[in-house]
Predict the 3D structure of the following.
Amino acid sequence: MVRVGIIGATGYAGAELVRILINHPEVKLTTITSRQYAGVSFTDVYPAMSGLTDLVCEEFHFDTFCEKTDVVFTALPHKLPMEIIPKLLNKGKKVIDLSADFRFDNVDAYEAVYQAHTAKDLFKVSVYGLCEVNRDAIRHASLIGNPGCYPTTVLLALIPLLREGMIETTQIIADSKSGVSGAGRSLALATHFCEANEAFKAYKLDGHRHCPEMEEVLSKEAGTPISLTFVPHLLPMNRGMLSTIYTTITQDYSLTDIRHCFESFYKDRPFVRLYPDVKRPPDVKYVQYTNNCDIGFYVKPGTRRLVLISAIDNLVKGASGQAVQNMNIMMGIDETTGLR
Amino acid sequence: MVRVGIIGATGYAGAELVRILINHPEVKLTTITSRQYAGVSFTDVYPAMSGLTDLVCEEFHFDTFCEKTDVVFTALPHKLPMEIIPKLLNKGKKVIDLSADFRFDNVDAYEAVYQAHTAKDLFKVSVYGLCEVNRDAIRHASLIGNPGCYPTTVLLALIPLLREGMIETTQIIADSKSGVSGAGRSLALATHFCEANEAFKAYKLDGHRHCPEMEEVLSKEAGTPISLTFVPHLLPMNRGMLSTIYTTITQDYSLTDIRHCFESFYKDRPFVRLYPDVKRPPDVKYVQYTNNCDIGFYVKPGTRRLVLISAIDNLVKGASGQAVQNMNIMMGIDETTGLR
Amino acid sequence: MVRVGIIGATGYAGAELVRILINHPEVKLTTITSRQYAGVSFTDVYPAMSGLTDLVCEEFHFDTFCEKTDVVFTALPHKLPMEIIPKLLNKGKKVIDLSADFRFDNVDAYEAVYQAHTAKDLFKVSVYGLCEVNRDAIRHASLIGNPGCYPTTVLLALIPLLREGMIETTQIIADSKSGVSGAGRSLALATHFCEANEAFKAYKLDGHRHCPEMEEVLSKEAGTPISLTFVPHLLPMNRGMLSTIYTTITQDYSLTDIRHCFESFYKDRPFVRLYPDVKRPPDVKYVQYTNNCDIGFYVKPGTRRLVLISAIDNLVKGASGQAVQNMNIMMGIDETTGLR
Amino acid sequence: MVRVGIIGATGYAGAELVRILINHPEVKLTTITSRQYAGVSFTDVYPAMSGLTDLVCEEFHFDTFCEKTDVVFTALPHKLPMEIIPKLLNKGKKVIDLSADFRFDNVDAYEAVYQAHTAKDLFKVSVYGLCEVNRDAIRHASLIGNPGCYPTTVLLALIPLLREGMIETTQIIADSKSGVSGAGRSLALATHFCEANEAFKAYKLDGHRHCPEMEEVLSKEAGTPISLTFVPHLLPMNRGMLSTIYTTITQDYSLTDIRHCFESFYKDRPFVRLYPDVKRPPDVKYVQYTNNCDIGFYVKPGTRRLVLISAIDNLVKGASGQAVQNMNIMMGIDETTGLR
C-alpha cells in the first residue's frame, strides 16, 4: 500500500485527486493539506464526498507530512511548489507536481511567462509527465511535472505525426475550448455564473502560458523550433476540453495513413481512443469523468490540410487523472488502476 | 406603412422575424403562414409573445397572400423557396429569402451541396444580402438571398482585409462555434437537451454547406479562387455564434493598420463594432438579441499570423435581423429601424 | 422629457435600468453613478451596450447629481438609500428605490431582518411599488419602495384571491426558484459558475428577508396576520423566477371562479398574463427580457387545494422593469412606455 | 459470478445500468437487448463507454436470452414488462423491472393512470424495491418493481416520520424538480435543447403518474389514506432531482427529534445521508453520479411546519443504481457493491 499525501487538496484539481485516490485500491491517502480550510473536514468543503472519507484538511507541516507519505501530489499555484519540492525530494519522496514549475526544460521559457525560478537545477531530474509519450522516463522518475490541460490535448494529437515527419512544423494552429473548471475555484468576474453562462469568448489572445509549454515539447519532438498559434476559449460548461488543430501534411497521406500512425503510436496506451469516422468526431461529453483522450482527424480531399480534434476532461486527463496515471507508472502499478 | 408577410413563421428564424417586425414602426405584419400550425394562434406556438400579437398562422394561399403583402420573407427549408419566389416576383413583390436558394451566383456550387435548382435564371437578379458589403446593390434589389449565419461572421471579418490585399488568399481557416438554435426547431438527437448540454463537439467536418457559400463570396472579393478550411462546432447554449479565423498578413502590418482598415470599411455601418483591445475580445454574450457583428483581431508580434474573431447572434444578424436590415435598405427605411 | 439619474448603475439591476431607460422615448438618462467604476464608460463595464450609449459612470456628488435629474433611481445595497433619499426628497426629486429600505410599513419588521433604520419617518410617505396593486397610490407618490423579486411573484398571485376571501389565510406555502442573476454581480462561491451550473438547491431555509416583506403586505391585504412558509431555491440559469404557491380555497370554487377573480382584478393591467390551460402552465422562458408576470392556477378535483404558479424575469418585473413602470405611473406616462 | 442481462439497454436508464454493471465485481453482464439498435455495438450508441465494453445490442429472443442470464433487468416502457416478465419468472429468473408495471399493490390505481394490466396476479409476488424501507422483503423476492424517481425522493423523506406518527397525514405537499434526463432519450419538443435550456416550468399539474404510486405507499405506511399534492418541474440540467416537501408535525418536535427519527431509521442504510445543518441543505450537485439520497429538514420556530428536502441522481438512486442495489440485496451481495 502506497502512502500518499496531497498538498493543496481543496482546489478543483486537489479535490479531484482526493476523489480518485480514495477509490484507488493500491494507495492509502493518509493526509491532505489546505491553507484555507485547515481543520475542516474535507466533506464540509465537498459535501458530495460525504460518507466516502473522514479526512480532515491539515495545515502543512513538513515533518509530520513526510512521516505519513511515500508519494506526494502538489496541487498548488505555481511558485509554491519550487519551494517545497526540493525538500521533499531530499527526504526521498516521489513527487507529482500539478503546477507548471517543473514542466519546462528551459528555464528562460519558464521565467518569461511565470517568474524567477529558484530550483532550476531540478529541471534535469524532473520528467514531463505526458504518460503516453514519456512512459519509460516516468517509470524511473522521482519528480514529475504534470502537463497542463491544453498541452495534453494538443501534444497527444501532434506528437505521433511529428515524430513520423507527417506534418509540417510551420503554421500549426490550435483552437482550444475549455470548460470553466479549468479556471479553478478562485472567484473572478469571468467565472461568475451569469458572466460565463450563455457566453462564449476567446481569452488570452496575446499569450496563454500553456503556449510556451507546448512549443518547448513540440520543438523537441520535431527537432526544430515550432511556433504555435494558440487561441483558448471558455465554454459555458463545467468540465471538458476540446482542441481543434489545423496542420498541413508533408505528403499526400490518406486518412488511412494518418490512422495507422496513431494506431501504431497508441497501441499499448489504454487511455487514447481514436475516432476515425468523420461522421462521429470526439465530443467532450464522451470523456467527462474519464482519463481518456479521444482523437479524431480529417483531411479535406484534394488538399493537404489535416484537422485534428482532441478531447479530454480537463480535471482528469488534463490534471488529476494524469497525475495518478503518472504515480501508477512510477510505482510499478498497472497504469489504469483507480482510473476506470 | 409597408405591408409584410412571412412564409414559414414558426421555425426559430420565422418566429424571430415576427418578434422584430411587430415592433417595427414602419411595417405592418399582415400575414404569417405555417404548414404545421395552420389555424393556430402564433402565441399558442410562442407563448412568450402573448399579448403582443393576435396573428394566426395561415395555410399559404398564393392569391390571398399576395393581396396582403408588399414585401415577403421566406423562412423555409431550401428547395421550397425556389418554387414560390419566381411567382412572387412576377406579382411585383420584393422578397427576402432566408434559405440558401438565392445566395449563390454559381449554380454548380449550389447544386453540388443542395439539389437541382429550378429557378437559376433568377441568380442574375438576386443580391447576396450581406448588408455591410452589398448595401448599394441591395437598395435596388427585388430578391435578396439572405446570408447564412456562419458566412456572416466569416465574411464580415475577412472582406475588408481581402479587398485591401492585406491577407493571403491561401490557408484561411475558420473555426466556428454556434449555439444550438442554429440547428433549428426540428427534433434531432444531437439537439436533444441531454445530448447537447454539457457537451461540445465539431460536426460536418467533411463539409458544411455554408463552406461553398463562403468560398464563392471570398473568391469574388479576392479576385482569385479561395479554398477555405471551415470547421463548425456546437456550443451548449441557445443563441450566439463566434468564429475564430486564422490568416496570414501579406506584409508586416501593425495592429493599427488592421484597425484602420476595419474602421475605414465599416465607418458608416452601424451594426459592426470593433474590439481593438486584445484584453477584451468579442463575447457572444455581448451580441445576444442584437443585430451587431462584433469583430476583434490580433497579430502575434514577430509573426504574420493574424487572428480575427467575429461574433453575432445567429438568429438576429445571422438570420432574421439581417433580413429586416435588408428590407429596410430595399425600402429606403433607415437601416437600423426596428433593430435597436 | 423627464431627466433621470441612476445611483448605482453597474450592478445587474442598475445595468438593466440603463438598458431600459436609454430606449425610453419620454426620458433622458442624464447621469449614472458607480463607486467601483467612477470615470469608466458604461460600455466598458457592459460591452453589450456599446454603440447605444456614451454615458460615463460618475462618482456621486449630491449637488451636481440633483442639477441633472428630476427622477432618481437608487439601485444600491440596503442601508445606503436611507441616507441619501431623504435629501433627494428635500430637493423635490421623485425617487424609486430598488432596495428594501422603503418597502416596509412596520419599522420593527424591517429592523428585525436588516438593520436600524434612520429614516423611518418616510415610511408614511413611501408607497410599495407593486404596480398592479397600488397604481393609484403610486400616481401621487414621491418615493417608491420597489418590491423584491420574490414578493412580486408571490403577491401578484395571492392578492386577488385574498381580497375576495377565496383562499384561507393559514398554511400558505411559496416554493420559489430564482435564476442566478437574482444574487447580483458580487462574487461568491455559491454563484461561481462550476458551483451553480448543473446544481440546484434550496437556500436560506431559516429565513429569507423577502419573507417578512411578503407577510406584511399579505397581512394588510387579508386584514389578518399571515405567516408564510417560504423556501427559495437557486436555478442553474441566468434570468427568471417562478413561484409555485400552495393554498386552500375557502369554498368549492371551480377553476372558472378562480379565473374570473384574476381576470377581473387584472383586466386593465397590461403586464399580467393568465394561463388558464393546465396543460400549458407558465415557463420562465416566456417572460425573460419582458416586464410580464405570468400566472397559472389549478385546483385538484375533489379537493380544495389550489396551486398557483407565477413567473417573472427577476431583473425586469422583479426589479428594473417594475421600477420604470413605477416611474411611468408617477409621471403620468403610459404605463407600458419603454417596456415593450 | 451472477450472469445478468438487460432488456432495453439503450435508453438512459438502460445505459446507466450498463455503466454500473460492467464495473460490478460480482456480476457478468452477458447480454443486452435493444429493438432500435439491434446489431449495433453498445459503444456506437454510447461512445463514452468505448474501450470499456464490447457488448453488441441484440434483438430479444426469449430462449437465448434465458440461457445467458440468472438475473434480468427490464428497462422498457410500461406495458411491455407485464408481457415478458411472467415468462421470465417461470424460467426461474430473478427480475428487476424499472417500469411502473409491478410497483403497485392495487391494480385499480395502476389501471387508472396506465392501462389494463395483464399480469396482476404477480402483484402478490412483486416487491416494491425501495431498498432502505423494504430490504427484508427484497432479500427473498424474485420480482422487484423498482420505484419511480420522484417517489424515491418523497418516500425516503416521509416514511420514517410517518411510521413514528410525527407528521400529519393530511396536507402533504411535494414540490419536485427534475433534471431533463428524467424525461428519457425519446425526442420531444419539451426536451429540445433550446426549449429546455434557460427555461423552468411545472408540468403535469393535473396529475403525474408517480402521484398514485406515492399515495399507495404512503397510505400503507400511515395506515390511513393519504392524498398528496404533487407538482413536478423541469430543471435546465442533465441529472438530478430534488423534492421540497411541506408537512405539519403532530407535536412540537424539535429539530433534534426529527434528526433522531431519521438517524434511527437510516442507521444501517449506507446510501442515505442526513443534512441537519440548515445553513447547508442538500444540493443535487452533491448526489450526481452517486446512489445517495440526501435528506435535509427544517422546522420554522414557533410553528409546526416541517420542510423536508430530498435529493438524488434521478438515473442512479432514481432508477438504475437502486435497481442494482435491489439486485445486490436479492443475491446476498453487499448492498453497496458496484455502487461506490
